[in-house]
Design a protein that fits this description.
GO terms for molecular function: DNA-binding transcription factor activity; sequence-specific DNA binding. Keywords: DNA-binding, Transcription, Transcription regulation. It comes from Pseudomonas fluorescens. Belongs to the LysR transcriptional regulatory family. By secondary structure, the chain is α/β, with parallel strands linked by helices. The chain folds into three domains: 3-85, Arc Repressor Mutant, subunit A (Orthogonal Bundle), CATH 1.10.10; 89-163 and 269-299, Periplasmic binding protein-like II (D-Maltodextrin-Binding Protein, domain 2); 164-268, D-Maltodextrin-Binding Protein, domain 2 (3-Layer(aba) Sandwich), CATH 3.40.190. The chain contains nine helices and 14 strands. The chain has helices spanning 3-18, 21-28, 32-46, 62-86, 102-119, 172-175, 227-235, 245-253, 283-299; strands at 51-53, 58-60, 94-100, 123-129, 143-147, 155-159, 166-170, 193-195, 205-209, 212-216, 222-224, 241-244, 258-260, 271-276. The chain has a five-stranded mixed sheet with strand order 4-3-5-14-6, covered by helices on one side. A three-stranded antiparallel sheet has the order 12-7-13. Strand 9 and strand 10 (212-216) form a beta hairpin. The longest helix is centred in the N-terminal third of the chain and has 25 residues, at 62-86.
């Protein structure tokens, strides 16, 4: 198969997956105009329109759906064949596609991802962040990174961070006028920055101490759906924030934030790198898994 033909087929798969020429172009590392030209050239040769395009959306035509159903298995076979040949290289090469949340990506970026790229210069890492859990197989990802409790049961999971804990934090300026809470119920007397899930539901802050579990539907003048906006609001004295100890650690160390209710926020299993159990593991993913194990073992010493 000519290189241009393979590019066109991958372009169809990317646009169908992303439902956007712009996002597909970013995924493939090419300009939107070049991607559009590749699709148009293929449609001209086939004599059919593969996509319905409007100014706001992109969707597969009936012919496009049939074409994609036939093409995707072939492309997977080609990718597997190329990966099998690459096993004979001294070092892994290729692209590792990961799906995770923005917060999780920040946790693993420096200790794992950047170190991985330093060790394996022929590898590329493509990280897509989603607030909601996605099907990594359907999305064409090699692996995902999520909290242990969110990993699907049919996946192989490997620790990529040590245990974590949540933290209730506020600025010194906030506590200059408000008494620090001693128990979760005391939060009802505080201005708390409420957390909204992607579903629209408001999160009830959860606590545990010596087997006693408590959840508090906190009150506050500000509700946010971005973890980092919540942290910034707390730094500005807007109220108490519910965050994780990793995100708050630097601010706590230099005194910009103060932690409360630490005895009510025990540690929990941290992030897990996960991937399908019944698929061939690419050399790049195997190397990434080995590095994750190394990083966690080193942090536990």
């Amino acid at each position: 198969m000519q290189k241009s033909g393979l590019l066109e087929l991958n372009a169809v798969v990317a646009v169908a997956s992303q439902r956007s020429f712009r996002r597909a172009a970013v995924e493939l590392g090419m300009s939107p105009s070049a991607l559009s030209h590749a699709i148009a050239a293929l449609e001209k040769r086939l004599g059919v329109r593969l996509f319905h395009r409007t100014t706001r959306s992109v969707s597969l035509s009936e012919a496009g759906e049939q074409f994609l159903n036939r093409v995707q298995p072939a492309l997977r076979d080609i990718s597997a064949a190329m990966e099998a040949v690459s096993e004979f290289r001294d070092t892994p090469a290729g692209t590792l596609r990961l799906n995770t949340s923005e917060g999780a990506a920040q946790m693993v970026l420096t200790p794992v991802v950047l170190e991985f790229l330093r060790r394996y210069p022929d590898m590329r890492v493509d990280i897509v962040t989603d607030r909601s859990l996605v099907d990594i197989v359907a999305g064409g990802f090699d692996a995902g990174i999520r909290l242990a409790e969110s990993v699907p049961q049919d996946m192989i999971a490997v620790a990529i961070t040590p245990p974590l804990s949540f933290a209730v934090v506020g600025s010194p300026e906030y506590f200059a006028t408000c008494k620090k809470p001693k128990a979760p119920a005391d939060l009802l007397a505080h201005n708390c920055i409420r957390v909204r899930f992607p579903s629209g539901a408001i999160y009830k802050w959860e606590f545990e101490k010596r087997g006693e579990a408590v959840s508090v539907d906190v009150r506050g003048s500000l509700t946010l759906d971005s973890h980092y906006l919540m942290l910034e609001a707390a730094l500005q004295g807007a109220g108490l924030a519910w965050t994780n100890d990793f995100a708050a650690s630097e601010h706590l160390a230099c005194g910009r934030l103060v932690r409360v209710l630490a005895d009510w926020t025990p540690s929990y299993p941290g992030l897990r790198l996960y991937y399908p159990a019944n698929r061939h593991i690419p050399a790049g993913l195997r190397a990434f898994v080995a590095l994750a194990r190394e990083v966690v073992a080193r942090s536990s010493i």
